[in-house]
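Supplementary Text 2. Reproducibility record for the structural model of the 139-residue chain.

All settings were left at their defaults, and a single model was retained for analysis rather than an ensemble. We include the record here because the model underlies the residue-level annotations in Supplementary Table 4.
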Amino acid sequence: MPASESFRIPKNRSHVPVARQRVRKVLADWGITDELADAVTLLANELVTNAVTHCRVSHARIGVELSLTNGELTLEVADPDRDRLPRPHDSTPEEEGGRGLALVAALADTWGCRQGPYTKCVWARFDVKGAQTHAPATS
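Retained model, structure tokens:
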């Protein structure tokens, strides 16, 4: 059965840990643990941090969505700065940042970005066919 979970946080660095914790909890509820959960949580942290850092829309809210369908887990992070698509670049050893998208490319099976009418979304997909998962309990 497909499962999905979404939430939004204010565009503020202090809310990045909240997003990371929510992602970790959703994954645990779906039975996704170990290295896969670590990778998805790390990439959620990177993508949310990028959105918080680079979105130029005042008082924006950052959207996070996780979906689990047919053995594939998708993480999406959206913000309302639709015209500023992320571009990977080679960071020098002296630079403190700029490696987030390289990390996304290394850990996700596929990733990309898309523009909507009012937002942009950066997404990462993971194959979970071999991972042990379960559908969330319905209430």
